[in-house]
# Entry
Amino acid sequence: EAERVLAPTEAARWHARVIDHVDGAEKVARIRQAARCYQKADHPLEAAKYYRLLATCVDEDERIQCQMLAASMAIRGGEFSGLREQLGERATTLRLPRPKPAIVSQLWFAARSVRSLLTTQLSPAALVERDAGDRSVGHREQQALRLCIALVRPVSMFDGLYAAELSMRAEALAAKFGSPLQRAHAIIGRAV
# Structure
């Protein structure tokens, strides 16, 4: 077990040391490798640090992915300070619900639950009833769906109401734009 953890940790440290001595694409590659190695070695706070750094060096699509991974790693590592603001910024960009005070979340969730009961919901049968070709998928909607699915579980560790909001939003997005696998994730999220 020690060898399995030690090798990626040492590799991550090597990549981290090299970062200051290279430029351009090589620097981005070393940052990416350091983040992945720290994640593989189960050092979530170090991985979050390098995913945040990587997010400043890449294009918009990869930036969103890096920010999602950084947030997830920070939550796994127990680093919650400043996380609400980061989630709020990303949520605003993708038109997702922002973290709110508990009472506002409770009221929103109650109203949304009632409205959800009155409208049709995604059912397991919907997984086979639709195919991926009959929906026009917007790039921003796919990013929002991936973000919701990726963050529901980690966010539930410190803010259950916001996780429920993200889960409901993921269900709505999956019903409109999701693949069968994404719709399955939404159904599972609703069940939990």
